[in-house]
Write a structure and sequence with these properties.
Layout lengths: L1 H6 L5 E4 L3 H7 L11 H8 L4 E4 L2 H7 L2 E4 L19 H13 L4 E5 L7 H10 L7 E5 L9 H6 L4 E5 L3 H14 L8 E5 H32 L3 H9 L20 H14 L3 H28 L8 E5 L14 H11 L3 E5 L5 H10 L9 H4 E4 L2 H4 L5 E4 L11 H7 L5 E4 L6 H7 L2 E4 L18
Parallel strand pairs: 1-2, 3-4, 4-5, 6-7, 8-9, 8-11, 9-10, 11-12, 12-13
Helix pairs in contact: 5-6, 9-11, 9-12, 11-12, 12-13
Length: about 450
């Protein structure tokens, strides 16, 4: 919405929410989320043609096009629990729009939704008793957190799906006109509703699949003596494959990948496509396995006991340049470490302490009977965090982690001091010279056979 306001000064944009605290933060100097470039963009248009408020009904009446961007988490109850999307918020929003709308409206799905959700929502909207007509469009977002503002300003494509009826195509054209203020026409793709809804799920599934694929190879590299970064570089040179999303890591996180794959799995199961469902489910299983084996590698490397040992996690956001912690690998690795009675210390340059505490509660990461303050500490200084620590684990690829004085850190740590690089961003040769015991995802450190000549000694 900020980007639309920025590039469409002739369009008035209202962002409304039922949470007054959130709206207050959007109207303040400290926005509720961190995203490079967002703060500057909001300040540029806020109060001019971009307005934040809790006046939902007034905005519904005033606006011709209504974007619905409510949360659609994975269900935790009932049929489809653990896989299907929870559409409660979407239906509540649709019912409220139908109740208060004062004339025809174009309703735009921004939330990631299962295929044919638009059909259900249209039925809810059209059930109003005032004969008000609604057109429902699908307009999924393909941005990446950390580069969202650039992605929105220069998108690879804008996808708009609508009904093939005359009125449906008229609504599609109106939304196309909004985006064509700054997006070249050839980059605005129009499809039917169902293709648009499915494309979003499939796009995230394909991206996550690449991450799980290279992560599965990282384990094979560690076993054989190959280097996953060399393998990634070699296959990425193939133009049919490309180099993006081939960086091995401790695992993917964020609000979309896992949720959307599970949604896709449930969709396939609902249509009886068992083999297809099993295929995509494996992407999530590999991701879970990667986080678990990273934690187990830490435990094995530290003499199979970490009880009472202080382990520092550098990074809690699921990726750099964002404060988003949803499905972050850090909380899952911390859960495994705490189960072994380790003492966990966390430093992240952008994530607030309160958010970390909420995540430990939400993901049930604390060992039963253990209070947060007894086993987890949040630090605001990375050098203070590592004092007397037995190990450091790189969990997020923040650029600042590359520039620390690791010799200074090493000197303040318990010995032997370990570093576990879950993001492959550190200079491992330098760390070894300092004295660290080093483990990194997909690297052949500690493998018996480093090259073919080693075989001759057997």
């Amino acid at each position: 919405m900020v980007t639309i306001a920025k590039f469409c000064p002739d369009i008035k944009v209202h962002v409304v929410d039922i949470n007054p605290k959130q709206i207050a933060r959007w109207n303040s100097d400290k926005l509720p989320i961190y995203e490079p470039g967002l703060d500057e963009a909001v300040k540029e248009v806020r109060g001019k043609n971009l307005f934040f408020s809790t006046k939902i009904d007034e905005a519904i009446c005033e606006c011709e096009i209504i974007f619905v961007s409510v949360n659609t988490p994975t269900k935790t109850y009932g049929v489809g629990a653990g896989r299907a999307a929870d559409l409660k918020n979407w239906e509540l929003a649709a019912r409220n729009i139908a109740k208060v709308a004062n004339g025809p409206k174009i309703i735009v799905e921004k939330s990631t939704l299962p295929v044919r959700t638009a059909h259900s929502m249209r039925k809810v909207l059209m059930a109003n008793d005032r004969n008000i007509s609604f057109e429902v469009l699908s307009n999924p977002e393909f941005l990446a957190e950390g580069t969202a503002m650039d992605d929105l300003a220069k998108p690879d494509r804008v996808l708009i799906g609508g009904l093939t009826t005359k009125e449906g195509q008229k609504a599609v054209r109106k939304l196309c006109d909004v985006y064509e203020h700054w997006v070249p026409k050839e980059n605005v793709i129009t499809t039917n509703l169902w293709s648009s809804e499915l494309s979003k799920l499939v796009a995230n599934a394909f991206l996550a699949q690449r991450i799980s694929s290279i992560n599965s190879i990282s384990e094979l590299c560690e076993a054989t003596g190959a280097d996953v970064q060399e393998v990634s570089r070699a296959i990425g040179k193939d133009t049919r494959i490309g180099k993006r999303f081939l960086n091995a890591s401790v695992g993917f996180g964020g609000s979309c990948f896992q949720k959307d794959i599970l949604n896709l799995v449930y969709l396939c199961e609902s249509f009886g496509l068992r083999e297809v469902a099993e295929y995509w489910d494996q992407v999530v299983k590999i991701n879970d396995h990667q986080k678990l084996r990273f934690a187990r590698k830490m435990i094995r490397s530290m003499f199979n006991t970490i009880s009472g040992k202080k382990i520092v996690l550098f990074g809690f956001a699921f990726k750099k340049d964002t404060g988003d912690t949803r499905e972050t690998a850090s909380v899952y690795v911390a859960k495994h470490l705490l189960a072994e009675r380790a003492k966990v210390s966390i430093y992240d340059p952008k994530v607030e302490e309160e958010q970390i505490k909420e995540d430990f509660e939400y993901y049930e990461a604390l060992t039963p009977g253990c209070e947060f303050k007894e086993c987890v500490t949040i630090e605001t200084d990375p050098y203070a965090a590592v004092k007397d620590a037995h190990a450091i684990a790189i969990m997020t690829e923040w650029d600042e982690f590359k520039d620390y004085d690791y010799k200074k850190m090493f000197d303040s740590m318990a010995k032997p001091a370990f570093i576990f690089d879950g993001r492959l961003i550190l200079d491992h040769k330098k760390l070894l010279k300092v004295g660290f015991e080093v483990y990194a995802i997909g690297k052949p450190y500690g493998v018996k056979y480093q090259n073919m000549d080693d075989l001759k000694s057997d």
